[in-house]
Design a protein that fits this description.
Layout: H1 10-13, H2 17-31, E1 35-40, H3 45-48, E2 53-55, H4 57-66, E3 72-76, H5 79-88, E4 94-96, H6 112-123, E5 131-136, H7 141-149, E6 153-155, H8 160-170, E7 173-177, H9 180-189, E8 197-200, H10 211-216, E9 219-222, H11 234-243, E10 248-251, H12 257-262, E11 265-266, H13 269-278, E12 284-288, H14 291-300, E13 305-308, H15 324-335, H16 347-363
Parallel strand pairs: 1-2, 1-3, 3-4, 5-6, 5-7, 7-9, 8-9, 10-11, 10-12, 12-13
Helix pairs in contact: 2-15, 4-5, 5-16, 7-16
The protein binds 1,3-dihydroxyacetonephosphate and iron/sulfur cluster.
1,3-dihydroxyacetonephosphate (13P) binds near residues 156, 157, 226, 254 and 268.
């Protein structure tokens, strides 16, 4: 998806870290309780230090849903998270994303047109009323609305198991998008075999599947992935275990199934934080997730050695777009009465996306 973020004015582009700190602290103090800054765990430290609340994508959506009392919600995360916050808050809350180019390449792997085409193709060969669409939080509001309209729900990496269980109690088949890995890993956790899953390739007719395969599959997994998490490999785990036989491997469920099978613990970013907190002092934990979280955990837990499972670091380049300069720019705008980079979702999309998000919040 193309989004346009123009260059920052000179004042912000050339400010020193100390000047930016002064601008952000000053704006936050002036805005006081009118403002809430939310930070996703993948944000860099120069941004995260200003977050009033931190969380994984599920936690942050809950926080947004509960905070209808603020005027401005500055979301330090990526576009789909800010959209969800707009859906979950009332019209009086203005949601701001400091850099409009902070998207998510995985979310961009499924768009409304291709999902609607897939839905029609599935309906042509099977009873569509028995198919439940589930979208991962990492998707546009338009897809969340599609799911809401068609009896499905949103899930995140921390509740995919509960949501998938719910979906399969309501139908015989799930169309899961956009992350095939989260879908596959969760399906296996629930006891489904790989033979009950098929990958739906949106670039091919009928997803690249035989009619029989569409009919028989319990889980149709959209051919999408996260390029950050897909980099981790079984070879990384073998190398780590060879060097640290007693070491612990903790992976995010967006990693491939082969990696998840070999990991000791698997869960969302919040889960990973708790796993490090619970790790015995002196242990070595290799983490398969975005590098800013890994580095923060390493700094905050000197009693444990925390390293990235992949020695070649894995940053999320879109999360990385949010920096102190953009944060200072949007916050000073709010002080001056100008809402920069507001994320607004249209009323019809809000209505149905909210249905899908509320279902998720009710399930867990
Ligand atoms: P969490 O749901 O763990 O916050 O992950 C979101 C995400 O984008 C991971 O790549
Ligand atoms: Fe998207 Fe992957 Fe970045 Fe998460 S880490 S925001 S899934 S690109």
């Amino acid at each position: 998806m193309v989004r346009l973020q123009g260059p920052l004015p000179e004042r912000y582009a050339t400010a020193s870290p100390a000047e930016l700190e002064e601008m952000i602290a000053g704006a936050k103090a002036t805005l006081g309780s009118r403002l809430l800054v939310l930070g996703h765990h993948y944000q860099r430290d120069e941004v995260m230090r200003w977050a009033d609340l931190r969380g994984d994508s599920f936690g942050l959506s809950r926080m947004a849903a509960e905070r209808g009392d603020v005027e401005f919600l500055v979301f330090c995360g990526v576009h789909f998270m800010a959209e969800s916050a707009d859906v979950l808050t009332g019209p009086d809350v203005k949601v701001v994303l400091p850099d409009l180019n902070a998207g998510c390449s995985m979310a961009d792997m499924a768009d409304l047109d291709s999902v609607e085409e897939a839905w029609e193709a599935i309906a042509a060969v099977t009873d569509i009323d028995r198919v439940v669409p589930i979208t991962y939080m990492n998707s546009s509001a338009a897809l969340k609305a599609f799911v809401g309209r068609n009896g499905g729900a949103v899930c995140t990496s921390s509740n995919a198991r509960a949501v998938l269980t719910w979906a399969l109690s309501r139908g015989d088949k799930v169309l899961f998008f956009p992350d095939q890995h989260l879908g596959r890993n969760t399906g296996v956790q629930l006891g489904y075999g790989l033979d009950q899953m098929r990958v739906w390739d949106p670039r091919r007719e009928r997803g690249g599947l035989e009619e029989r395969e569409v009919k028989e599959a319990t889980l149709l997994l959209w051919k999408g992935h996260c390029s950050v998490h897909q980099r981790f490999t079984p070879a990384n785990i073998a190398a780590f275990r060879a060097e640290h036989p007693d070491g612990i491997v903790v992976a995010h469920p967006e990693c491939s199934h082969e990696v998840v099978l070999l990991a000791d613990q698997v869960g969302s970013t919040d889960f990973i934080i708790k796993a490090i907190e619970a790790a015995p002092a002196g242990s070595h934990v290799a983490v398969a997730t975005e590098i800013h979280l890994v580095q923060r955990l390493a700094a905050e837990h000197p009693e444990v050695t925390v390293t990235s499972l992949d020695p070649l670091i894995c940053p999320c380049s879109t999360m990385f777009r949010i920096d102190a300069r953009h944060l200072a720019w949007v916050l000073e705008g709010l002080v001056e009465g100008e809402v920069r980079n507001q994320i607004t979702v249209g009323p019809e999309t809000v209505r149905w996306a909210r249905v899908a998000l509320d279902r998720m919040l009710e399930i867990v």
